[in-house]
Amino acid sequence: MGRLGKFEIKRIQDATGRQVCYSKRRSGIMKKARELAVLCDAQVAVVVLSSTGKHHHFCSDGADIKGIFDCYQQATGTSLWTEQYEEMQRTLSRLKDINRNLRTEIRQRMGEDLDALEFGELRGLEQSVDAALEVVRQRKYQVITRQTETYKRKVKHSQKVYKSLRQELSMREDPVFGFMDNPAFGFMDNPMMGGWDGVAAVEMGGGGSEADMYAFHAVSSQLDLHGMAYRRSDCPLFG
Question: Residue 186: what are its φ and ψ, rounded to 5°?
Fold first, then answer.
């Protein structure tokens, strides 16, 4: 801990005051670095990291921060990246070993590169393959069971729809004459005028009327059915 004149320099406890001071001092440092680069034609690089992780930097015109760091390493005989580079090399070597072992295991599971394996290794490989095969079979049976249940539900639904359609069709049919009661054929019972008995009930004093009768057209060589139906005097039965 140092002293500047009569004032002791220490960490500012208030967060707001600390942020305000950081912003002002950072701007002052960047200004001084720019002045130094312009006035003295020097290569200047400044990197500032705040307590919140934000970074600010300055680099003189015509230069870059990496180039300035490289010049610093050459001038001091130190290396800023050696440790990081060695760690990256160790990580790369470890990943290569893992990749090589996995490729070898895959080939052995496919029945290749087995000459270098001893009896115990072959036995372990066999057990591993059997275990994997059992897992595949169980999964296959699960898929078959699920598909079978789905097909059963579809068939059950189709049967239900078929039964419903048959019931609807049977309700539209007449139980005696079948489709004869359908309006599309033109033969309809008229319950308001006496039903099917209305034809004969017109001349016999029943409750029917002419609306229930059906017109049958006959050729000229046959009897006059219309006359027999309407004139009581012409028919001996109603005479």
Answer: 85, 5
DSSP 95-124: HHHHHHHHHHHHHHHTT-S-TT--HHHHHH
Looking at residue 1, what DSSP letter applies?
Answer: -
Distance CA 101, CA 95 (A): 10
- Chain length of the chain: 239
Q: Which two tokens stand for residue 1?
A: 């801990």
Cα separation, 154 vs 163, in Å, equals 14
> For residue 1, what pLDDT is reported?
45
7 forms beta bridges with: 4
Apex 227 CA angle, 221 and 230, nearest 5: 155
pLDDT per residue over 177-195, tens digit each?
444 444 444 444 444 444 4
Between CA 162 and CA 158 the distance in angstroms is 6
Q: What angle do CA 7, 13, 18 make, to 5 degrees?
A: 80
